[in-house]
Structures are given as C-alpha cells and as structure tokens.
C-alpha cells in the first residue's frame, strides 16, 4: 500500500476517534451547522495531515480532504436522528475513506490493486465464510431443535438473537485462524467460551441445558473447522 494513503488514513483515524470528545459530538448534534466545534474538528484534520506529512507543500491535499470532511459531516448532522444514527455513522466513515482514496488518487496518481477480486481463491474463501453465517445457523437449528430444553428458546436475560450472532462470530474467527495457520487460537477461543459459559451452566443446575449447550458449541466449532480445512484444501 502507498505510504501517502496510509498517512492520510492515519490522520483521519486520529482526528475522528482520538481527538473528537463526546461533548463535541453532542454539540454538533444539537447545534448542527452553528456548532463551532464542527469547524474546529475539521481544522484538526487539516492540521494533522500537515503534521504527519511534515510538508507544507501538500496544502492542496489537506484542504481538499478538509473540505470533503466538512461536507460529509455537515450532511450527517443535518439528516441524523435517533433512528438512523447507527447506520449514518457507518455511512459517514465509508464516505470519509472514499474521499481520502479519491484525493490520494488524483494527488499522487495512486492505484489500488483489486485484481484479486477475479481470482478463484478469493471467491472460494468468500463462499466458505458466507456458508458459516446464516446457512450454518439454520443447519444447526434444524439438527439440535429436538433437544432444545423447555422455556429456553428466549429468556428475559438474553439479548435478542445474541446466540446466533455469537455463533457466527466464533465460526468466522475459527475460519480466519485456520486459514492463517493459527490452530492454537481455536483452542484459546474454545477455552474462553467455556469460561464465560461456566457460570451460566452452574447457575442453571440443569443437565439437559448443559448438554444442549455442549452439543451446540461442539457442532458449531466442528462445522467451522471442517469448512475452513476444506476451503484451505481447495485454495492450496
């Protein structure tokens, strides 16, 4: 990756996540375009670019990114409300990174190599990862549904769909660990999950629930390991 692009991304990360207190964010949300902290925030981004590059000749790049940053943040605070705040946060960050790449491209004639998108191995890995998300969740639900203990389908103490998303994340991590040849991390993940689950199972005092959780965990890990090893075989 080009060093200029890395420096621009670093400046953005520091400015948006380290040098922007929550009080500034709230002030911008309340006062919208009248908030002077919006303009101070953008100014900090511009200064950071100068500091990281340590070169005044890049003023066009710094001002271009600063102007685009102001435009993106202004649109965000104008349209943001409680319902769309979460999705706008991610859209905001995507737009910021896209603006950085565009400015970098025009300023330094930079190009990002995306030829790997057309490679068969890339699509095999994507297919394996997708299989471990919802398809595996549905397969597991069909397999272990008959063993689900009564009154355990949804408890008030449990976050909605938390178990499903935890399973997807753990399978994705196992997939990543095996493809990068870090099998020991799989054992660490299993041990960590066992520790967190130990308290719940001891409090439950229900052997059926314990067996159900063990079946689900081992099945989830087993499918993830098998899918990862098969993917590894295909891309070898």
Automatic annotation (TrEMBL):
It comes from Pedobacter rhizosphaerae. The chain crosses the membrane at residues 38-56, 62-79, 86-108, 120-144, 172-192, 212-235. It comes from the Bacteria. This is DUF3307 domain-containing protein. Keywords: Membrane, Transmembrane, Transmembrane helix. InterPro entries: Phage_phiKZ_Orf197. Pfam families: DUF3307 (PF11750).
